[in-house]
UniProtKB/TrEMBL annotation, chain A:
Keywords for this protein: Cell membrane, Membrane, Transmembrane, Transmembrane helix, Transport
Protein family (similarity comment): Belongs to the binding-protein-dependent transport system permease family. CysTW subfamily.
A Pfam family annotated for this UniProt entry: BPD_transp_1
Entry's Gene Ontology cellular component terms: plasma membrane
Residue intervals passing through the bilayer: 12-33, 61-83, 90-114, 134-158, 201-218, 238-258
PANTHER family reported for this sequence: INNER MEMBRANE ABC TRANSPORTER PERMEASE PROTEIN YDCU-RELATED (PTHR42929:SF1), INNER MEMBRANE ABC TRANSPORTER PERMEASE PROTEIN YDCU-RELATED-RELATED (PTHR42929)
Name under which the protein is recorded: ABC transporter permease
Membrane topology label: Multi-pass membrane protein
Predominant location: membrane
From TrEMBL, chain B:
CDD domains on file: ABC_PotA_N (cd03300)
Keywords: ATP-binding, Cell membrane, Membrane, Nucleotide-binding, Translocase, Transport
GO molecular function, one term: ATP binding
Reactions it catalyzes: ATP + H2O + polyamine-[polyamine-binding protein]Side 1 = ADP + phosphate + polyamineSide 2 + [polyamine-binding protein]Side 1
Subunit structure and binding partners: The complex is composed of two ATP-binding proteins (PotA), two transmembrane proteins (PotB and PotC) and a solute-binding protein (PotD).
Primary enzyme class: translocase
Family: Belongs to the ABC transporter superfamily. Spermidine/putrescine importer (TC 3.A.1.11.1) family.
Keyword Membrane tagged: yes
Stated role: Part of the ABC transporter complex PotABCD involved in spermidine/putrescine import. Responsible for energy coupling to the transport system.
Residues annotated as domain ABC transporter: 7-238
Annotated protein name in UniProt: Spermidine/putrescine import ATP-binding protein PotA
Organism: Cohnella xylanilytica
Any Pfam family the entry gives: ABC_tran
Domain of life: Bacteria
Amino acid sequence: MKTNSRNLYLIPYAAWIALFVVAPIVLIVYYSFRDIEGNWSLSNYAHFFTPVYMRMTLSSFWYALLITLFSLLVAYPTAYLLTKAKHKQLWLLLIILPSWVNLLLKAYAFIGLFGTYGFANAFLESVGLGRQQILFTDFSFVFVSVYIFIPFMLLPIFNSLEELNPTLIQAARDLGASPWTTFRRVVFPLTIDGVKSGCQAVFIPALSLFMITRLIAGNRVITLGTAIEQHFLVTQDWGMGATIAVFLVIVMAVIMAVTGRRRRGARG
Amino acid sequence: MTDSTIIRFDKVTLQYDGDDAVLSDVSFEIEHGKFYTLLGPSGCGKTTILRLIAGFIQPTQGDIYLSGRRINDVPANKRQVNTVFQDYALFPHLNVYENVAFGLRIKKMKQAAIDAKVKEALRFVNLTGYENREIREMSGGQRQRVAIARAIVNEPEVLLLDEPLSALDLKLRTEMQVELRELQRRLGITFIFVTHDQEEALAMSDEIFVLNQGRIEQSGTPTDIYDEPINRFVADFIGESNILPAVMVRDYLVEFAGREFECVDGGFHPGENVEIVIRPEDLEITAPGEGKLKIRVDSLLFRGVHYEIVGSDEDGNRWLVHSTRKAKVGDEIGLDFEPEAIHIMRFGESEEDFDKRIEEFTEVGDED
């Protein structure tokens, strides 16, 4: 009787998983084995392992890596300062607030800021550096992506810093550690779980970015995300798009498995 | 200031904006190689003193000296003191060995030297063979020992212990009291131990500082403080006691509970209002009519080693008696005590004046 009612509660959850997680993946895998004519074939995979797609994959990884790295470099110190701040909940809210604004709106806002007659160039001109090409460069692509991903990196790091027992920092100082050594040997190792979750939350979506590549990078950067979008919406080659998607799903699973495996240290 | 002084507080005040002072005008000296206890209720400033010595906070006013050098502006990592924290603060990502080796690695010591020192420190706290254990696999008492080993391996001049026994159960706590005292003797360094447990303080210390509301009320050996508390607060906080208002008829004669009694304290004005303390174990039960006082027994509790008897005399004063003899509730009993059992406390007397008066007027040799 008891187990029956418990199973009853599981139905919505199971239905959700089946409809929105399992079914799409099965469909993607199914399409990846169909060529453009609708025949069963492995040609999509053969095509994927050609230099064109490999270069695209490589550049996707490279940019995702850069975005993750810069997000981490910005988010960790910010999170650290936040935990020390007086009104930390307010500051946290202010940092997270932009993520409530639609991605497209933010992208267009940056077009305005970085454009030839935008605010950034006006500033450069006033300090005597003259107008620069900012939009449609690697710099602007990485900059805007980092801006968009910072809240996702910041939150898990902030949480792990908040959980850190402050007496541990005192203990390290007491044992002779300088502030930097304390950070390197105590604070960072104990917040590594937060860093890992943050990197996962940034790296994986960064691999399949597409909107920003067109609006901010002006299609000079073509990532796997852009390729999927183009195949589904423009070339109508669903099979090829699905193949890239399958590849990304596998990569994500591997990344999650590798970064998530380490056991958590018990708290003192 | 003597040569053996290792820590000196000179009029140290700590105050946060707009709040009452956490410590006000505290001065004391701590000598090398002794076991000190800072004793007081929570919020009295005892942990604050420890944190000032460790360097986690800085005084608002006054100076702190370590080995004759002013250390107000020396950061915690540059001070020759180590702390055993209340929650132990062991590093959860390191095993026992690496926790103990933490301070040595920072000093960039050679691996062989680290090995030898860590082994020795673990042997000192009876944890040989636990090197590769993770912290979460250790019990409370074992973590306690790791925390001590991690501190003493750095050979500090002063070891600060912040209520380190409060998380342990009674039996383990008593064991650790003996071990800590033993450890201090073997190491020969200064221990400064913070506790709110008066029994712990009496059992372990060479010297006790009793603190209240950011001030040192009294300092002295455990027997000094137990036998000659300076005021009501100390008498009440250290052990159980009968405290009664009294009048000094003249030196060595005091009146309370409607009668005059001989006592051993002097240096008072005739007719001065004072308070007297009689410890419950100094009261002896006699047959009614005999003895110096007559009380009616209101309650009786069996405490294992003794009976705890609460009674009241004709004036309504409450009397607490510890006796191995049993009494019946409702019975009248007599109470007898020696003149030495009466300790007299003057209102608002400073510690300096108190010590001077005790030295001058106490005729019975009560130092042992």
